[in-house]
Amino acid sequence: MSNELKNGHTPAPSTNFLRGIIEADLVSGTYADRATQEGQALPQVITRFPPEPNGYLHIGHAKSICLNFGLARDYAGRCHMRFDDTNPEKEEQEYVDTILDSVKWLGFSWEHEGKPHLYYASNYFDTMYAAAQALIRKGLAYVDEQNAEQMRENRGTLTEPGKNSPWRDRAADESLRLFEEMRDGKHPDGSMILRAKIDMASPNMNLRDPAIYRIRHATHHNTGDKWCVYPMYTFAHPIEDALENISHSICTLEFEDQRPFYDWLLEQLSQEGFFKKPLPHQYEFARLNLTYIITSKRKLRQLVDEKIVAGWDDPRMPTIVGLRRRGYTPEAIRLMSDRTGASKNNSWIDFSVLEGALREDLDPKAPRAVAVLRPLKLIIDNFPEGQSIDCSAPVYPPAHPEHDTAHRHFPITKELWIEREDFMEEPTKGYFRLFPGNKVRLRYGYVVECTGCDKDEHGNVIAVHCNYFEDSKSGTEGSSNYKVKGNLHWVSAEHALATEVRLYDRLFSDPHPDAGGKDFLAALNPNSKEVITAYLEPTLKSAQPGEIFQFERHGYFVADRVDSTEGKPVFNRAVTLKDSWGK
């Protein structure tokens, strides 16, 4: 293959089978001569992202978004944003709005050369209805009056052929009349259905006269009450692709068995003059299977409806809105998508891959801050009463010189908060933090020596005492005179921001919570959320909703988009600094 393809575009290296297919089509010019009805040349690569607006998108959809929009971008094409809104009973405008917002947030656009390519299957209902009529006239579709149970019984099994419907050979004129009556609302739901006439003995169950139109007396979010009949997804989807001149129709492996019907339908309709060749072609890839999550819309809705989570955007949910609120970035999700690639084989990806992508994205760009999550009072007995001394620390780590050298400032005072685990009255072997007689450095501050502790009536430590060495302040000449092994973070008790912090973990403790028919609710992790009051360095009072920080030692935290208020941010832990799951 030449380095430069026929459209003059040099693509990214082939990293998966889909890129190989596209590059081969570009070399051969499979879609090179297509044009609009107005004669304008079409891109050789046109993909689409076709969600049904019946729920919130999840991480699996994010993989599909990155794949479809990314391939179009990399091969000088365009990707259509299309809603497959053929089921009026489950679809709502709320879902349309959140899907559009999620795609934009992930960094993609359905605009190409200044023109938006936002489409709805419902806008094609007239064409779909005409296509169904054409199939009836051609003897390739008929109105069936069997009920759902009879159709199931007559469909056959994987080893036994199906049985023809008693209505299979009814005259085309009669099927046309009944189909029009279905459209006009003259028959109740479930009383009739339009089926394609293919082969009831086919080894592919999907070719045994599949249903293509059903009666639904329901108001549609886009077309209102215009229609009483609605196309089935498997009928509508290929027609939508052809109408939009899609070249590479990319879907997940569960649709592989539907591809013969996809090809059959488009071939029949092209013969009737509906579409010109070359026709779209469907390709299947393995869906994203991440451990420790579920992606079933029904089960996700159950979590919301039963108030097991706080909503679709609960930071423990695998929805895009939930991941966003948790603190995941578009860059991290795109990185994970790129790394997992596209394959023809189903496999499981450990959730740590997604977490690792987030750490890698945030490490060079997340401002640093200090937070004490499990507070214990530290009193510097020889520190001047009422005095505060300014300390400073870099906003970004020195390992990333691309950032400026900005510093943040915070005071050290007589009383501080430290982490409870940073003091042991009787230290274990290898413990280098605070214990009576030991010296440690207060990070960005002074070296102190522990002198003892206070306890309550139950023997619990409630405060630790120490003395500081005035000539040991970090950044001064005298600091080099002190060699200590412990280095503790802290915040001034007087100046600290006391605020709510939510420590999130995986929602399920089982890596495959709903596999094999298991009750996924039994796998809920009781420690998936812990709400604490933490003490943060005072600079964080100005944190804005959605702003992400690395809390030194603890991980990456985001100011909650919903519950943060001016001067009082609420923080969600997005991910720990290291993968500690199960350790």
Give a short overview.
With 583 residues, the chain is α/β, with parallel strands linked by helices. It has helices at residues 17-28, 59-74, 93-105, 125-137, 148-154, 172-183, 233-243, 259-271, 297-305, 320-326, 330-340, 351-362, and strands at 46-49, 78-83, 111-112, 115-116, 118-120, 141-144, 193-196, 211-215, 229-231, 248-252, 281-285, 368-369, 371-372, 375-380, 389-394, 407-412, 415-419, 439-442, 447-455, 461-468, 486-488, 491-492, 497-504, 529-536, 548-551, 555-559, 571-575.
Please, could you describe this protein's structure?
It contains twelve helices and 27 strands. The chain is of the alpha/beta class. Among the domains are: 125-231, Glutamyl-tRNA Synthetase, domain 3, CATH 3.90.800.10; 297-367 and 500-576, Ribosomal Protein L25, Chain P (Beta Barrel), CATH 2.40.240; 371-488, Ribosomal Protein L25, Chain P (Beta Barrel). The strands form seven sheets. A seven-stranded mixed beta sheet has the order 12-25-26-27-23-24-13. A seven-stranded mixed beta sheet has the order 21-18-19-20-14-17-22, with no helix packed on it. Helix 2 (59-74) crosses helix 11 (330-340), helix 7 (233-243) packs across helix 8 (259-271) and helix 11 (330-340) crosses helix 12. It is an enzyme of class 6 (ligase). Its EC number is 6.1.1.18. GO terms for molecular function: ATP binding; glutamine-tRNA ligase activity.
